[in-house]
Amino acid sequence: MLTTARVTYTGGLRTEAQHLKSGQVIITDAPTDNQGKGEAFSPTDLAATSLASCILTIMGITAQRKEIDMTGATAEVTKVMGSDPRRIAKIEIHLIMPAKKYTDKEKKMLEAVAHHCPVGLSLSDKTEEVLTIHWS
Questions:
Q1: Hey, what CATH class is 43-135 in?
Q2: In the chain, what are the domain boundaries?
Q3: pLDDT tens digits, 1-35
Q4: Is the pTM of this model over 0.85?
Q5: What's the half-sphere exposure (Cβ side, CA atoms, 13 Å) at 1?
Q6: C-alpha angle 115-119-125 in degrees, rounded to nearest 5
């Protein structure tokens, strides 16, 4: 198995994560409500954002296979933290589909796969996931 990433603690509650295959780097910072500066994604921000990215990707795979153009779809992510223990309690995703003519069958198919992305299936059952798809 190949190593996916290398994460280095750089001090000041900040990390630098490098994707080893591509060399891409992501900086994380502790959030302001947990002793950090909030100058970059927090690790829990990335987890919530990963869910949205995964949903869009899995929908994109299906759309590409079915020759459906969903280019320009966006997701707005809201993360709600819980306490005792501190954890992601809720992730709300508002998915805004581009103004294109989707059939009811296409909408139903894309909505179905959206609920089966690997990130969502990997999250704790204690994390509430709310997905709303807005068809323009």
A1: alpha beta
A2: 5-34, 43-135
A3: 899 999 999 999 999 999 999 999 999 999 999 99
A4: yes
A5: 3
A6: 75
